[in-house]
Amino acid sequence: MNAKSGMQTMRTAQEPTIREPRRRVVGEAPLRSEVLTTQVGLHIPPELGFDDWERAGRQLAGVVDSSSWWLGDWLVYGKDNYADRYQRGIRAAGLKYQTLRNYAWVSRRFELTRRRARLTFQHHAEVASLTFDQQERWLDRAEGKKWTTKQLRKAIRDAGDGDTSEEERPMLTRRLAVPGGRVQWWRKAAEQSGVDFNKWVLVTLDQAAEQILED
To answer: Structural domain of residue 165, as residue ranges?
Structure first.
């Protein structure tokens, strides 16, 4: 990053790369094939070609998706190595703890060697609550059929118990009395998170239990 301008150069490579850009004169416009990133937006040259614009979008999407893994791994490391101080680091970084917990939960469920570069972080989040074998099976299908996260979610939902072995099925179902209006509130939160409602409930309860037991 250029210390004076706060800009990074988004190269027109097929895969996102993070490189130190060449120094620029203050006020200098980006080259015709360059999109420059700043902390508050993009500098896009007025005559940027469609191919370069499209490629920049792919790079931006890759950075956004990778950042979920990066932040998740960052929090996991902090919790494992600085148990008494990592929350101070979160506050100093100005990040939302609950968002990081979601990222960290998925990151813990998938070791680095199991993460599929051809699938997004959200693909992995969709199957994170499943067993190891189920995770691998659904990720294989999503990768092979080039499913979007919505298609993957629908396939899992449509499969129901048919994709779960006898030993993996819950042995008992319990009913929980919930005050009126809470369920709709929770459903709205699950919808905004892009996660199936039942899965959202399980993940949220697991995370709450983990936090209490860790503390």
So the answer is: 110-169
On whether residue 95 sits in a domain, the answer given is no
Sign of CA dihedral 72, 77, 78, 79: positive
Evaluate whether residue 44 is within a structural domain: no
**What are the DSSP calls for 120-160, one per residue?**
-HHHHHHHTTS-HHHHHHHHHHHHHHT--HHHHHHHHHHHG
Give the C-alpha separation, 126 to 135, whole Å: 9
Q: Both 121 and 164 in a single domain? A: yes
Per-residue pLDDT of the chain (215 residues; tens, 9 = 90+): 444 444 444 443 344 333 334 444 344 455 556 888 888 888 888 888 898 889 889 888 888 889 999 999 999 999 899 988 888 888 888 888 888 888 999 999 999 999 999 999 999 999 998 989 999 999 999 999 999 999 999 999 888 733 444 344 443 445 677 777 777 888 777 776 666 777 777 777 777 776 676 65
- Residue 58: inside a domain, yes or no? no
Evaluate the CA torsion angle 170, 175, 181, 182 in order and state its sign.
negative
- At residue 17, φ and ψ (nearest 5 deg) are -130, 150
CA distance 130 to 193: 18
Domains contained in the chain, number: 2
